[in-house]
Design a protein that fits this description.
- The structure is a single chain.
- By secondary structure, the protein is α+β, with helices and mostly antiparallel strands.
- Among the domains are: 120 residues, Topoisomerase II, domain 5; 79 residues, 2-Layer Sandwich (Gyrase A, domain 2), CATH 3.30.1360; 327 residues, 6 Propeller (Neuraminidase).
- It is 28% helix and 25% strand.
- It is built from 18 helices and 41 strands.
- It has a four-stranded mixed sheet with strand order 14-9-8-17. It has a four-stranded antiparallel sheet with strand order 10-11-13-12, with helices on one face.
- A hairpin with a 3-residue loop joins β38 and β39.
- The chain is elongated, with a radius of gyration of 44 Å.
- The relative contact order is 0.07.
- It is found in: Cytoplasm.
- It comes from Campylobacter estrildidarum.
- This is DNA gyrase subunit A.
- GO terms for molecular function: ATP binding; DNA binding; DNA negative supercoiling activity.
- Its EC number is 5.6.2.2.
Length: 853
């Protein structure tokens, strides 16, 4: 490019790209080294170091009077820190806050802010002085223990680092954002750090596991509870990790209501903002069960009171608060610091070793300084001793000398003294000539010679050097013996959504058109046998409730479709509605394919290998598969069963396997001949009981159906006597003392002892289960009687009735039974069991028992 400027001009042409790169790099390093990141040795950023050094210059120690913060800030920015006074004062304020610093280095007087986020008063109103810990950071700074560098205008010097008798970087931690990097080091307990350093002195190759026997983890000034050591271990090992912190709480009782009291908060949590956050969540109904939140904190400590409603469960509300508010927070550890003018991420052992190396350097330099000082003093005392030994000649020589210079030269020449010794003799007072003073000089010289020998030994011996470090650490621990504040729990489990949901009993209904909902079972009051029931759901004219069952909110629902696919859904994920609500389309909850229809829904609490899943189809097929094969469900589902053409699933039952199931020969579908002895042996285990809509049933051993894989068809359970018959229900029988409850479409039902039904081989034609007539219509299904449970019956019009099983009459096998549900022009479409209600609803006895035998 042609230079358009005069050759003699002072203007220099530069490449803008290179200039910007160079300037930005200079700026970046200035921020990294000079402002944002702490030194790995003393744990201080330049501004903090300059504040403490300026206060040391001013003589504002822990025992001196407080000095105005404005005076301190003025000295800092005038002498050492060429930046804004606000930045300096903000740093000074944080150094005085006991909720920000684990061990504050500034003792503040006045308003220095609060944990509620309140700012400090202006610097002209507050006063400050150093704490004892700050003095330990500066101890021996006047003994040439650290390097000094010129200040910003070269008018004076400032320390490059402080001697730091305490491991301040880990003790108080540090946080800062530089250019392209950031640091976030948590504070720790001084007692634990000292114990770890002492162990490291004795065990140079100590492992992280050994060090963590002493240094348990971060110790935050606001307390709280750290959940899980995994993040701590990772941070100590690599320099990076994530630590989960929760507020510390306890539960109190007040008028039969629970009260959650927050005693300690996670580090850097704003208390006022937290209370506001909780109030907003309650107002928006994102957290339920809270009636009032108030702050009762005082100078004694934090106390935030959260009053709950009478029916609220404290554990669930508390988990909701942890999940949705800053009562639980994550501290991202980045142990980045400056060493040798370069930023580096350190592990725990590296930082501890670096501190010990720094202390060794400081002590060596201090020892050299003290040794030189002792030798200089001993040199003078040796000269004085020579003078005292020759006092008459010395006095005569000085008396006859014309001036000081002549006397000094004469002393040096006659007695072999140095200039320093000769000057000391000339400056000596006559009072030093007494016998007592002579003895003092000799004693002082003897002590100095011992001290010189000791200091020499320290410089020559690594062991003595380490012993000195060890003694200093023990002294520090004794002076600042403060117990750990933050509690550490060994294990941490992320809060699962289930922890936020009460585990309540629900009635789940699904309609023919695929609308599903859940309703708390307590909304259905129990009625006496024969009651007309309450409306369970509002349906369209062409829709009706196809199935319903009871399950807890934490249970898993397995949906099996007409294509033999199985899907998962947690009960709590089903929208809760009122008794008359329509519900939500199930296709919006699980990933059904086009034209795919749900045929069976099975609730389960787990997928234990000791359980089996038995499928029963409309065509009388039974299939049994281990439940564990269905525990890993994909979004598109898994294959549950292979179905024949024109076959449908009727029900699926989870069965607990017998401890010792009988080994059987390979099964054959065409079983007509029954081996009574074999059946009698097999009857010792569980039995399967299946019924058809024509009133037939079959009871056969569970052992007759061996477990097979997911992608299989199954075997014959029952052969139908009539062509238009089909299987409508099945149950598992534990023993013949159990009772089976059968219900027909017209609400007729009966309880029959299981022993009345003859045991057959699988694949038989069965026996009569219920005597059917025009008044009963077809058999709907069966359930096992449990008098601790109630019966739920659902009609095609959407009515649901709850009946006490104890009120249903017992009858023989070949009978019809009594009216269980008064359906009038309606029909029962499904039955299920549910937990009992404690209070009975009084109804008139308009539906007396009807014996249809």
């Amino acid at each position: 490019m042609e230079n358009i400027f005069n050759k003699d001009s002072d203007i220099e042409i530069v490449d803008i790209e290179n200039s910007i790169k160079s300037s930005y790099l200079d700026y970046s390093m200035s921020v990294i080294i000079g402002r944002a990141l702490p030194d790995a040795r003393d744990g201080l950023k330049p501004v903090h170091r300059r504040i403490l050094y300026a206060m040391n210059d001013l003589g504002v120690g822990s025992r001196s009077a407080y000095k105005k913060s404005a005076r301190i800030v003025g000295d800092v920015i005038g002498k050492y820190h060429p930046h804004g006074d606000t930045a300096v004062y903000d740093a000074l304020v944080r150094m005085a806050q006991d909720f920000s610093m684990r061990y504050p280095t500034i003792d503040g007087q006045g308003n220095f802010g609060s944990i509620d986020g309140d700012g400090a008063a202006a610097m002209r109103y507050t006063e400050a002085r150093m704490t004892i810990l700050a003095e330990e950071l500066l101890r021996d700074i006047d003994k040439d223990t650290v390097d000094f560098i010129p200040n910003y205008d070269d008018s004076m010097n400032e320390p490059d680092v402080l001697p730091a008798r305490v491991p301040n970087l880990l003790l108080n931690g540090s946080s800062g954002i530089a250019v392209g990097m950031a640091t976030n080091i948590p504070p720790h307990s001084l007692n634990e750090l000292v114990d770890g350093l002492l162990y490291l002195l004795d065990n140079k190759n100590a492992t992280l596991e050994e060090l963590m026997q002493f240094i348990k983890g971060p110790d935050f000034p606001t307390g709280g509870i750290i959940y899980g050591k995994k993040g701590i271990i990772e941070a100590y090992r690599t320099g990076r990790g994530r630590v989960k912190i929760r507020a510390k709480t306890h539960i109190e009782k007040k008028s039969n209501k629970d009260i959650i009291v927050i005693d300690e908060l996670p580090y850097q949590t704003n208390k006022a903002r937290l209370i506001e956050q909780i109030a907003d969540l309650v107002k928006e109904k994102q957290i339920e069960g809270i009636s009032e939140v108030r702050d009762e904190s005082d100078r004694e400590g934090i106390r935030v009171v959260i009053e709950l409603k009478r029916e609220a469960m404290s554990e669930i509300v508390l988990n909701n608060l942890f999940k949705s508010t800053t009562m639980e927070s994550t501290f991202g550890v980045i142990m980045l610091a400056i060493h040798n003018k370069e930023p580096k991420i350190f592990s725990l052992s590296e930082l501890l070793n670096l501190f010990l190396t720094h202390r060794k350097t400081v002590i060596i330099r201090r020892t050299i300084f003290e040794l030189q000082k002792a030798r200089a003093r001993a040199h003078i005392l040796e000269g004085l001793t020579v003078a005292l030994d020759n006092i008459d000649d010395v006095i005569a020589l000085i008396k006859n000398s014309p001036d000081n210079a002549s006397a000094r030269d004469s002393l040096m020449a006659k007695f072999g003294l140095s200039e320093i010794q000769a000057n000391a003799i000339l400056d000596m007072k006559l009072g030093r000539l007494t016998g007592l003073e002579r003895e003092k000089i000799e004693n002082e010289l003897a002590e100095l010679m011992k001290e010189i020998a000791r200091l020499d030994e320290i410089l020559k011996s690594e062991k003595l050097l380490e012993d000195l470090i060890r003694d200093e650490l023990k002294e520090i621990k004794a002076k600042f013996d403060v117990p750990r504040i933050t509690q550490i729990e060994d294990d941490y489990d992320d809060i699962d959504v289930e922890d936020l949901i009460p585990n309540e009993n629900m009635v789940v209904t699904i309609t023919h058109r695929g609308y599903i909902k859940r309703v708390p079972s307590k909304q259905y009051e129990k009625q006496k046998r024969g009651g007309k029931g309450k409306l369970a759901v509002t349906t369209y004219d062409d829709d009706f409730i196809e199935s319903f069952f009871t399950a807890n909110t934490h249970d898993t629902l397995m949906f099996v479709t007409d294509r033999g696919q199985l899907y998962w859904l947690k009960v709590y994920k089903i929208p809760e509605g009122s008794r008359t609500a329509k519900g939500k389309a199930v296709v919006n909850l699980i990933n059904l394919q086009a034209e795919e229809k749900i045929m069976a829904i099975i609730p389960t609490t787990d997928f234990n290998e000791s359980k089996s899943l038995c499928f029963f189809t409309k065509n009388g097929i039974v299939k049994r598969t281990n439940l564990s094969e269905y525990q890993n469900i994909r979004s598109v589902g898994v294959k549950a069963i292979n179905l024949d053409e024109n076959d449908e699933l009727v029900t699926a039952i989870i069965v607990q396997r017998d401890e010792e199931e009988i080994s059987l020969a390979p099964m054959v579908d065409n079983i007509e001949v029954e081996n009574e002895e074999l059946l009698e042996e097999e009857a010792k285990g569980k039995m399967l009981f299946a019924v058809t809509k024509k009133g037939m049933c079959i009871k056969f051993p569970l052992a007759k159906v061996r477990e097979i894989g997911r992608v299989s068809r199954g075997v014959t359970a029952i052969k139908f006597k009539e062509k238009n018959d089909e299987l409508v229900g099945a149950v598992v029988i534990e023993n013949d003392d159990q009772e089976i409850l059968s219900v027909s479409a017209k609400g007729i039902g009966k309880r029959t002892n299981a022993g009345e039904y003859r045991l057959q081989s699988r694949g038989g034609k069965g026996v009569i289960c219920m005597k059917l007539t025009d008044k009963t219509k077809e058999l709907i299904s069966v359930v096992i009687v449990d008098e601790d449970m109630d019966l739920m019956a659902l009609t095609s019009s959407g009515k649901m009735i709850r009946v006490d099983m104890h009120s249903i009459r017992k009858a023989g096998r070949n009978t019809s039974g009594v009216i269980v549900v008064n359906v009038e022009n309606d029909e029962v479409v499904s039955i299920a069991k549910c937990p009992k209600e404690e209070v009975d609803e009084e109804v008139s006895d308009e539906n007396p028992d009807l014996n249809l035998e």
